[in-house]
Protein: Fimbrial assembly protein
Amino acid sequence: MASLSSRKKILAVCVALPFCRSDPAEANVDFNTAVLDINDRNAIDLSHFSNDGYVLPGEYLLDVKINKATINQQMISYLADPLSGNPSRLCLPPDLINRMALKKEASEKVTLWNNKKCADISRIEGAQVSNKIGQGALQINIPQASMKYSDPDWVPPEQWDHGIPGLLADYSVSGQIGKRYGRGESHSSYNSFSSYGTLGANAGSWRLRADYQAYTARNRLQNKSEFAWNQIYAFRTLPEQAARLAAGELYLDSSVFSSFRYTGVNLRSDERMLPPNLQGYAPEVRGVAASNAKVTILQEGRVLYETTVSAGPFVIQDLSSSVRGRLDVRVEEENGKVSTFQVNTASLPYLTRPGHVRYNTAVGLLSNRDHRIPGPGMAMGDFSWGMTNSWSLYGGSLLAGNYNALNAGIGVDLYALGAMSLDATESWVRLPGRSSEMGTSLKINYAKRFDAWNSQISFAGYRFSQRKYMDMSQYLAARFQNNEDYSRREKQSYTVTANKTFWADDPGKALTTYLSYSHQQYWNSTVRERLDLSLSKLIDVGNIKNVSVSMSAYKSKQHNADEYGGALTISVPLQGRRRAGYNLNIANRDTTQTASWSDYSDPDNSWQVTAGVNQRGKAVGGGSYTHESPYSTLNVNSSYQQDSYTSLSGTLRSGMTATEHGAAIHRNSMNGASRIMVSTGDISGVPINNGRAKTNHFGVAVVSNVNSYYDTTTRIDVNKLDDDVEAMRAVVQGTLTEGAIGYRNFDVVRGEKMFAVLRTVDGVAPPFGAIVMSKQGREISVVNDDGSVYLSGVKQEETLDVAWGGSKKCQIRVPANYKSLSQLLLPCE
Structure:
């Protein structure tokens, strides 16, 4: 900035010449004006530079930062304080003190002045305030000894941002069209379209959400359409309690009881609000597609995620960390074949900080997906108490008339050996026309990350259930749906998910492995199991570096039928981020080999084409295209297999957010999640966060998929700005609560750069060192000898203030036709 660079130049002269002297006690600077080549030495005002902390009295819109965290953006006042003789004293709003997360003894040292409208923290030992008005920031530094919390990777609840009121609509749309060829008929056309998404509204700390899913399919055998509202509910965060309150149509989210749907109220601790080392793991879904396929992830019949994938291995990592329990995965191939399998989401063994209690309570009426309430009332509660640093006690109860369950367990931190928990659940069930049944279920969880070995067992679990044990979902199916499938009660299950990188210190030798295995055995049904294994490595082949080789395999068993498959993929890097590849894909007894050509030279537009042959000698081919824009993500796949099928499929994800500051269409992958609205005034086309967002015609953009309760950085890509656009500040940080719409206002100007000469109404030039400021308090430039000044980023007919002697003295106005003037003389009135 001009003012900052001018100040640095003057201070540099102080060091190099006998131009000034400083008083260490006062941190002030006295300037020796005799060395300046200025005709009238009385026309000099360097008071603005004499004290590095001096700020002209007035109000400034600043980013308030406490230590490394940006709290908010608000008006901050600097006032004259005659009682202390201070010509300009910082007036901290008293409500900011609560957001500093001070210990009690530190907060008691805060004093109030100006009729208790201003706070002073100078009595806190080591507390400092750095005035960076020219950079639009107020930096407050508090010693860690005076803070409640000491985790450097965690922002305390007092500093979270609940966002602003607004409306949102997030959606994903997938479609497939094609033809299938078979015996006895020329062809059979089909098409299907599906969508799922979330509509929402935010008001204060409350969020209202309505999740929907829709599906339509037309082919030779069927013509059907479905639309459903999955759930309509409201929730809010309770930061001081590290809890979440929700009401409406909900799915039980418990670490000890299985999920089911109810209409009521839920109050629970939210582990995402805890420090990172006490949080669980986000779920991950892996699989192998035999062709271009649509992958749908569901839980209790509701769609959580849906996308189209290319043939070969796929990994889905976009699920929310709040998703718990068992997930159903549906893979629909281009030839119409559908395969399903289940995934257990990873769960950290139940551990709680010593002296703390985590809890989860729910009350309501059992309900179904048709928004009907067929069942009785229910009440549920579970808890975890940190007894010591390494031991936690947990348990809970579920009461619902003819279904009741009780759980008790213990968790232990094994330190170098990881963490483990053990619990037991007892159920009591009475079905119409049947006698009461009682059963027990035992469960063990284990997790460990071996940093020294570059490996992690993210989840290992074993469960054994007696024949008469029932969870709530089984009871509801038997009681209200007359579904005899409840007799397929689980006997035992075990799941292991692990990964390891061998030779991680040497990228040329590094080998990454992943293993997932699940086994489910039932008392009165067939066994289900699933094994996934993958290996990946970078190798050098002669002069060709970083050739990627990956292998994946899976085996699945259900209904006494085995399915297996795998893939070998070799990808060779070429010039310009292009790659040539080979893929061997095996699905049961069908083998397909293809060659591919990929182009990733444009990060926003990538594509791939494939061609090959299957084991029957039939030609296969296809292509994929992905477009990433600030407004949406589009993925398109096409495939062809001789005498079998041709198809075209795609997925579009997008969202829209509207607030009092404007509206914008934006990218989206996590429906209803937190987001940040960015305003750059009326400047359009400003790129944000490496092009993830770009301001629209109204100067508004939205950065979506922001992680809740994590410090998030929003930045302008200054290297990609137009030549006539300048950002006064380019980086803002902050931490949002769940579902919040954050707001970040960047001071961005579009204007010309010019030299001008200033004159007061008396025809006198403002003194050397006077400051030219915008109406927002931004320092634009410093007046030079004889009133000359260099202005940048100014607009036509914009009014600017000129200040010296500790106050604003006059104003200048940029003319509307200044481009046509050969010499610019601006009166300062």
